[in-house]
């Protein structure tokens, strides 16, 4: 029988990771919004999405403190999926929820990703400059970093020979970022006293992003076979996701658990795989790392779309007609489920559930039918 999200949140849970099998199915973020509202009733006080952590600071300022406007934060607060209607609904709901509550009870918004993808990543310059300015230093970073375009262009990731990641300038920027982070911690008492703990953390978040981008660019410059190089890029990104999530939990530990929302390949417990340009890429995602580090404090809810894993077909859906959309879905225990082959799809970001993913999940949220499907999706 279909069950409620409350059935899959053990008392030990600090991180509930809800994965989606594709970024192109709007029913998943719609369901996420409904599930998060229920989880808030259970004491959850934060949500973290697969989007840039630095940009998400703008969204959190809005939902917790009313700074800015909804239109503005949707435009500037997301590196990924800011144009999704469900994300706009989530941000608006969080602002409405928080408006009448004291600060300690307000729900917080985070991103746990960086502003990058498989083919591009920005310069670390502006992140380093933010931290430098917070520390009131005079260090010239722009000349050392050079033009932003040399970092951000696709060739910098796709062609190791075009990457600035293993240059003398990149190594000097790495050393500078380490020095800035050391200074930030060494002067923490006076800095927090002069500004605030929130402003100090904001600078730390920018430095974490800069260091992550420098590692990503360094990996892109490696002269190894392409499968190893690209798999390393994916692993580097997920390590940065893990660092961000662990820091988020440090902040939220005394307030309540956190809902994570992103692609299954980032959140599942098993080894992640992805076909690309004739290669089979393999790496451990953030969920696999967090599961090893958090143990029973980590729970994984796998999203499933299309052909049902064996054991789901005879069960009735949990709900239908959700949020003005016709969505037939069910939430089920993962134990005893077996994978079935996926039908054809033109969406390269869709990953049907593998048996290893099912075996590593605590529950399956399966969408069998959706009136919210993007036109042309399988």
Description:
The protein is of the alpha/beta class. The two termini are 27 Å apart. Mean pLDDT is 90; it is low at 344-348 and 373-378. The chain contains 15 helices and nine strands. The strands form two sheets. Strands 3-2-4-1-7-9-8 form a seven-stranded mixed beta sheet, sandwiched between helices. Helix 9 packs antiparallel against helix 11 (197-220).
Q: Give the DSSP E fraction (strand runs of 2 or more residues).
A: 15-25%
Helical run tally: 15
Helix content: 40-55%
Query: Can you count the beta strands?
Result: 9
Main sheet record:
7 strands, mixed
Ends: how far apart?
Answer: 27 Å
Q: State the order of secondary-structure elements, H for helix, E for strand.
A: EHEHHHEHHHHHHHHEHEEHEEHE
On the 0 to 100 scale, the average pLDDT is: 90
Q: What would you call the structural class?
A: alpha/beta
Shape, per Cα inertia axes: globular
Q: Supply Rg.
A: 21 Å
| Biggest sheet strand line-up | 3-2-4-1-7-9-8
Give the low-pLDDT segments. 344-348, 373-378
Structural topology:
Layout: E1 15-20, H1 27-41, E2 46-52, H2 53-65, H3 70-76, H4 85-99, E3 108-113, H5 125-135, H6 142-145, H7 149-152, H8 155-158, H9 168-186, H10 188-194, H11 197-220, H12 226-252, E4 258-263, H13 264-267, E5 272-276, E6 279-283, H14 286-294, E7 298-305, E8 327-333, H15 355-360, E9 363-370
Parallel strand pairs: 1-4, 1-7, 2-3, 2-4, 7-9
Antiparallel strand pairs: 5-6, 8-9
């Amino acid at each position: 029988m279909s069950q409620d999200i409350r059935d899959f949140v053990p008392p030990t849970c600090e991180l509930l990771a809800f994965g989606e099998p594709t970024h192109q199915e709007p029913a998943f973020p719609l369901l996420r919004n409904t599930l998060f509202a229920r989880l808030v009733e259970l004491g959850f006080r934060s949500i973290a999405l697969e989007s840039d952590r630095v940009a998400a600071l703008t969204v959190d300022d809005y939902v917790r403190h009313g700074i800015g406007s909804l239109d503005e934060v949707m435009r500037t607060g997301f590196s990924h999926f800011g144009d999704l209607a469900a994300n706009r609904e989530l941000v608006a709901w969080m602002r409405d929820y928080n408006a009448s509550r004291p600060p300690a009870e307000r729900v917080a918004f985070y991103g746990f990703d960086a502003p990058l993808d498989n083919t591009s990543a920005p310069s670390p310059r502006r992140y380093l400059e933010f931290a430098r300015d917070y520390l009131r230093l005079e260090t010239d970073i722009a000349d050392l970093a050079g033009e932003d375009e040399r970092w951000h262009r696709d060739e910098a990731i796709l062609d190791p020979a075009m990457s600035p990641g293993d240059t003398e300038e990149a190594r000097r920027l790495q050393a500078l970022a380490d020095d800035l982070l050391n200074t930030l911690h060494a002067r923490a008492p006076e800095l927090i006293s002069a500004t605030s703990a929130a402003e100090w953390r904001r600078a730390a978040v920018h430095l974490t992003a800069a260091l992550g981008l420098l590692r990503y660019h360094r990996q892109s410059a490696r002269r190894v076979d392409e499968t190893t190089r690209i798999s390393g890029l994916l692993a580097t990104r997920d390590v940065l996701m893990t660092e961000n999530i662990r820091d988020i939990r440090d902040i939220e530990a005394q307030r309540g658990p956190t809902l994570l929302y992103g692609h299954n390949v980032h959140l599942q417990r098993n080894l992640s795989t992805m076909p690309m340009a004739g290669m089979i890429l393999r790496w451990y995602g953030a969920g696999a790392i967090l599961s090893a580090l958090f143990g029973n404090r980590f729970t994984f809810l796998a999203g499933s779309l299309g052909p049902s894993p064996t054991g789901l077909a005879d069960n009735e859906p949990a709900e239908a007609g959700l949020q003005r959309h016709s969505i037939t879905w069910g939430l089920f225990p993962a134990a005893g489920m077996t994978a079935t082959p996926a039908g054809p799809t033109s969406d390269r970001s869709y990953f049907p559930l593998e048996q290893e993913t099912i075996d590593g999940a605590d529950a399956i949220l399966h969408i069998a039918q959706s009136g919210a499907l993007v036109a042309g999706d399988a």
